[in-house]
Write a structure and sequence with these properties.
The structure holds 2 protein chains of 2 kinds. Chain A is built from 35 helices and 45 strands. The two termini of chain A are 59 Å apart. Classes of the chains: A alpha/beta, B alpha/beta. The interface between A and B is large, with 55 and 46 residues.
């Protein structure tokens, strides 16, 4: 046994092939590369026909539909294929989405060159559930160490949704305002706008929303943490970005956090290393306040360590369950050059700290320190050594202390300089001189007068070595001297810690971590931030590490010894989608206003002024939507049935396939791991006839695996007493906003026989089906009335059907199922006739939405109608007569040969008769062809005329005096109105039409073997007077008069009857029931409706 | 006199799709309109139509598939016969011609559906005023 046939392409041909194969009893896997079936049609077919066609496929118990799926591997194994399918996530749960469109309404991303959003659902798209176009992680978001959905907030800003943008950032990191100012923005370096003109000014957009929230936004909703009464305590040492991120996260996880800070101010390097003109202190204050509002306590002026106020041992004794050391790197590295210890040589970080604390605290103990450094006041000549942001900050701070001569020496060139380009530009604008390729050799001076000069040497860069780095080497004899009074060292820092408290350090003086655990060598003590990394961390990196550390601390405290690897959880690649020509149009960056240089140097006011609202909107619109989904998560909040799953994973399955059909766009064939020689059956995607022809070839490989369906066997249930359950769906708010569902339930509860009523949120969900099932057993219900959008409880798909209605019925087990799977008649234990559905959404809520009272009244009447229908239903058991599959082929067309061959190959006896018979009629469940008094029988008939003349002759032998065989001429070929008759159109390719007719015949023979017959007409033989009215009425010959001993009565062949009910309407004795309702039901329904 | 209800019989195919489309497109129509869905208009017989009048319906509108698009091929033709018979009967019983109508709506035509419904109700009201 194999897993059946694989059909590639959810096209017209693909679904035709799938249906023929499945109807004939073969399992089918239908693979479609896009999220929806029925794409790219060159043939125009009305939406309702496409929809019903695709839904037939979606509901078919023998067809598994794989959308968003590619055939990854195919290996030939004797007569089988081992196929590997890879399904890209849809990010929408097909079992929950109600197609309400709320997600599309809030999605901020419009996909270029289309009319849809990043989450979308085309009009006739099936499965009728939204899909998210997410081809990967946007490069900006991927680059962010803090895990911010960068494209998400940019997209929200572009739509003017500033509060949501801010909330999205704040959810990922605690410092939107700080990062909006001083982040080194790896997002921008990776922004694909940069390939066109210049990256989107992402950092400034973040700054804009953080400021907007302060001024124009609604006050942030108070996030109250519900600390459990036995909440465990964690101590964090250091209030910089890493430590406070750990604190913020742990508080959200429900831990009580105390932060110990050695300095008299919070925020670590952010407050004492970054000058206020870049990062205003009120921005720090408001973001720290938000963390403190969560319940995080900060203790200033408290040092931890052997020489501090408390040791780590003390912290554990004080009741902390874990400790996190985020002490930063506050000691400057030494240059190891002569004269380094002279007075007048200062550490850059000390200088910045002194300036910052001096500004922030009322008492000014630091002013005297500054006076001591600046020996000549404004005329002090200063040299800053280093090329990082600390060097820039130190130099620019000195300019603000009004020093006239400030220069930076850097031993490499500008290209290698680690400081941000804008920092370098601003330093130069403010009058700082930068000398590149210059290194210090010795500091000159003496203990008494301090520094007097600095001997330097010019450098040159070597050719790049194997690692691509260009090392600076001195140029012999280029030594020269700068006369200076102050030398500032800004070449890097190390943590202020010495191995102690059982915490080991690395050789470079950093805290040593154990593997990926973020734990130090001491159990329960963790570390993060600059204290553990070799290179100075950017704030956003410290935040990212803080988040990971918090996760690890949480795992540790829960006793979980596993570790989270954020790289592993990111399964998606970085999105590199092709940019279209229109996307590559030049759109310059919106410049940000800044203070004039003159205004800057008078104090520490913020230099960069930030975007106005208009500027921010304009800048955000430059985003190219690389994802294209931005992961802004707006759809997640909007989706009431919680169907959006942004972290959905890919699925990979292996199948053992007997035959492969290809009905996708021909150009995709080359992408597949197949060649035509390996046995692929190919069909033109828009030609259903070719789909059937390909199916016939696949049947040849697979006919031995045919297995029919079990149908839905009707069982008897006791109707005495009647116990009706009435369920009313709210459809999220779609029904409930107009119809008062509670009122409908309350009114229904008062009706006779109604034993139970309940309101459902989403009746098409699995949960709702479970609710109905348990109500059936708990309240011993024998009828179920469901007022929702589903409109019939019959196993059929009509023009109005939707994926959700199909799903609702599927969940309740109303559709026929595949043989072995099923034991109960329906999953609720009730036969399908015990269900009555009525649509109160399209028929009430949506057409009377302005008048809730009327909508509720009408909904009640419609529920009464459905209840009447359920009350007066009587089971009908329809069983076709057993027929053995056999086929007669008439006509001398060439197609007759290929058709006969295709049928014989799959084990269906087929006989070809060239002579036109005298008469062909259908009786006793079988076709009978007679010629010259001789009769041959068969289950089905194929007509393969050579030309129009023979065609006319063949048609003339069918039918009765009243009715002739008629045909439907559609875009998909000529179809006989009478089931069981198939035509090979002589105008078409004979091979294809012969094979196609064989496939459709096999499908029909499969269908009549064992299917559920629900709407077909049945005759009450006791009331039938054999008057022949039904025989004369039906134009496709389903009824006939049967003689059984003395009795004569009508019998209607369910395999021929299409359920229109015309015979039932005309039967003078009212003996026939047909369609979904009997006469009595119709009368009761009208009664209920109009009373 | 309370609100008089109008019964609209729709076939399960084109006309029902029109009814559904009217809902989907939020095409408002009077809430006195009560749809009853049957498989095909051929399923109706004069007894069912008279039942609606007997129960006090202000009118009965039969909506099926457009000409030559009947899902069952011959159902709409049968409905035409039923319509003619029913019309004779309701005239005999004293109802006005405007109270019974046979019409069609194409699948997906929500606007046409509500227009035809509103037109039918206006027709009843108009003839009522004249009477």
């Amino acid at each position: 046994m194999s897993n059946g046939a694989l059909v590639i392409g959810g096209t017209l041909a693909g679904v035709q092939a799938a249906q023929d194969l499945a109807d004939s009893g073969i399992s089918v896997h239908l693979v479609e590369s896009t999220p929806f079936l029925g794409k790219n049609r060159s043939v125009s077919i009305p939406d309702h026909l496409i929809t019903s066609r695709m839904l037939e496929i979606a509901k078919h118990p023998k067809i598994t539909v794989w959308t968003n799926t590619h055939v990854e591997q195919a290996e030939r194994d004797t007569d089988r294929f081992r196929i590997t399918l890879r399904q890209h996530p849809r990010y929408v749960d097909l079992t929950k989405c109600t197609a309400c469109g709320d997600c599309m309404a809030v999605c901020p991303v419009s996909i270029p060159e289309t009319e849809h959003k990043a989450v979308y659902l085309p009009a006739a798209g099936q499965p009728g559930c939204a899909a998210i176009d997410k081809q990967g992680i946007p490069p900006c978001s991927h680059a962010c160490p803090g895990g911010i959905h960068v494209q998400g907030y940019v997209a929200l800003i572009a739509r003017g949704r500033f509060q949501e943008a801010f909330d999205l950032i704040r959810d990922a990191i605690p410092f939107p305002g700080i990062c909006g100012r001083v982040c080194m923005h790896p997002c921008e370096a990776n922004c694909r706008r940069g390939e066109v003109d210049a990256p989107v000014s992402i950092r400034l957009l973040k700054r804009f929303v953080s400021d907007w929230v302060e001024t124009a936004g609604s006050p942030p909703p108070e996030l109250k943490i519900d600390y459990p009464p036995d909440a465990r305590q964690v101590a964090v040492v250091g209030s910089g970005p890493a430590g406070m991120t750990v604190a913020d996260r742990l508080a959200r996880f429900g831990y009580r956090v105390t932060v110990y800070e050695k300095l008299p101010v919070t925020a670590g390097m952010m407050a004492v290393g970054i000058p206020a003109y870049r990062l205003p202190r009120d921005v720090i204050a408001r973001e720290y306040q938000r963390i403190q509002d969560l319940g995080v306590e900060i203790r200033l002026n408290t040092a931890i360590g052997p020489a501090g106020d408390y040791s780590v041992d003390d912290l554990f004794d004080m009741g902390f369950s874990a400790v996190c050391l985020a002490i930063g790197a506050h000691n400057s590295l030494s240059l190891h050059i002569p004269g380094e210890d002279l007075p007048g040589v200062v550490q850059g970080i000390e200088l910045l700290k002194t300036v910052s604390i001096n500004q922030q605290l009322a008492e000014l103990p630091y002013q005297s320190v500054l006076d001591k450094i600046l020996t000549k006041g404004e005329n002090t000549r200063a040299v800053v050594l280093g090329g990082g942001n600390t060097a820039m900050d130190a130099a620019r701070s000195l300019k603000r202390l009004r020093l006239k001569d400030v220069r930076i020496l850097y031993r490499r060139s500008r290209t290698e300089m680690p400081a941000l380009p804008e920092e370098i530009e601003e330093a130069e604008a403010e009058g700082v001189t930068i000398e590149y390729l210059t290194a210090p050799v010795r500091v000159q001076g003496n203990e008494k007068f301090g520094v007097e000069g600095l001997t330097c040497i010019r450098m040159e860069l070597t050719e790049p070595d194997e690692s691509g780095r260009r090392r600076p080497v001195p140029i012999q004899g280029s030594e020269f001297r700068h006369d200076v009074d102050l030398v500032v060292l800004a070449i890097g820092q190390v943590p202020d810690i010495h191995g102690s408290d059982k915490i080991a350090l690395t050789r470079q003086g950093r805290i040593q971590l154990e593997g990926k655990s973020f734990m130090t060598t001491r159990t329960g003590v963790f570390a993060a931030g600059d204290a553990v990394t070799l290179d100075k961390m950017a704030i956003i990196e410290a935040i990212g590490m803080g988040k990971q550390t918090a996760e690890e601390i949480d795992l540790y405290l829960k006793g979980d010894r596993s570790h989270k690897d954020p790289e592993e959880s990111r399964e998606l690649p970085v999105s590199r989608r092709e940019l279209s020509a229109s996307e590559k149009t030049f759109k310059p960056r919106v410049d940000v206003p800044a203070l004039s240089v003159a205004d800057r140097l008078t104090g520490y006011d913020e230099v960069e002024l930030g975007y106005t609202e208009d500027q921010a909107l304009k800048e955000a619109e430059r985003c190219l939507a690389c994802g294209p989904c931005s992961e802004c998560m707006a759809c997640v909040s909007a989706c009431k049935p919680e169907a959006i799953v942004h972290n959905q994973k890919e699925t990979v399955v292996e199948l053992n396939i007997g035959s492969v059909l290809f009905a996708d766009e021909p150009k995709r064939l080359s992408e597949l791991p197949f060649t035509e020689e390996t046995g692929l059956h190919i069909a033109d995607p828009d030609n259903p006839l070719e789909g059937s022809a390909a199916a016939a070839k696949a049947m040849f490989h697979l006919f031995a695996e045919r297995k029919g369906l079990s149908g839905t066997e009707d069982i008897s249930i006791s109707d005495d007493p009647l116990r009706i359950g009435v369920f009313v769906c709210r459809c999220g708010e779609e029904i409930a906003k107009a119809v008062d569902t509670e009122t409908v339930c309350n009114r229904a509860a008062a009706w006779p026989d109604v034993a139970h009523t309940a309101v459902l949120d989403h009746s098409c969900s699995w949960d709702a089906a479970e609710t109905i099932r348990s109500a059936v057993s708990e309240h011993q219900l024998n009828r179920v009335v469901l007022a929702a959008c589903s409109c019939c409880a019959v196993d059929q798909v009509c023009f109005s059907c939707t994926f959700q209605r199909v799903r609702c019925k599927q969940n309740l087990g109303i559709f026929e199922r595949d043989g072995d799977l099923h034991s109960l008649p329906t999953a609720a234990g009730l036969p399908s006739h015990a269900f009555a559905f009525v649509n109160i959404r399209e028929q009430c809520a949506w057409v009377h939405e302005e008048d809730p009272k009327a909508a509720t009244g009408k909904a009640t009447a419609l529920v009464a109608l459905a209840t009447a229908n359920a009350r007066s239903v009587s089971p009908r058991f329809l069983k076709p007569k057993p027929v053995s599959p056999s086929v007669l082929i008439f006509g001398s067309g060439y197609a007759s040969r290929s058709c006969k061959g295709a049928l014989n190959q799959q084990g269906i006896p087929a006989e070809h008769l060239e002579a036109v018979p005298d008469r062909i009629e259908h009786s006793g469940g079988i076709y009978k062809a007679s010629r010259n008094g001789k009769t041959i029988e068969a289950a089905g008939i194929i007509l393969a005329p050579r030309n129009a003349g023979e065609w006319d002759k063949l048609i003339s032998v069918f039918g009765t005096d009243h009715h002739q065989l008629r045909f439907q001429y559609g875009k998909t070929g000529i179809i006989a109105r009478q089931p069981g008759i198939f035509l090979c159109d002589p105008k078409l390719d004979t091979e294809a039409s012969g094979n196609a007719a064989a496939a459709r015949m096999a499908a029909w023979l499969g269908k009549i073997q064992n299917r559920s017959w629900q709407i077909q007409a049945t005759v009450d033989t006791d009331r039938c007077r054999a008057c022949n009215t039904c025989v004369d009425t039906c134009e496709i010959g389903a009824p006939e008069i049967i003689l059984e001993g003395e009795a004569r009565y009508a019998w209607i062949d369910p395999t021929i009857c299409t359920g229109c009910g015309s015979c039932a309407a005309r039967c003078p004795s009212g003996a026939i029931a047909a369609g979904s309702s009997s006469d009595r039901q119709l009368e009761e329904m009208i009664d209920a409706l109009l009373s | 006199m309370g609100i008089r209800k109008v019964v609209v019989f729709t076939c399960n195919w084109n006309a029902y799709s029109g009814l559904e489309a009217a809902g989907k497109d939020h095409e408002q129509y009077p809430e006195t309109v009560f749809p009853v869905r049957i498989e095909c208009l051929g399923r109706l017989h004069p007894g069912i139509i008279l039942k609606a009048f007997e129960k006090g319906a202000a009118g009965v509108l039969m909506l099926g598939c457009p000409p030559d698009e009947c899902n069952f091929d011959f159902g709409f033709r049968k409905a035409e016969e039923v319509y003619a018979q029913s019309m004779d009967l309701i005239r005999t019983l004293g109802f006005r011609d405007s109270q019974l109508k046979l019409d069609y709506v194409a699948a997906g035509e929500g606007k046409t559906f509500s227009e035809k419904i509103i037109g039918f109700i206006e027709g009843i009201n108009g003839s009522q005023n004249k009477a």
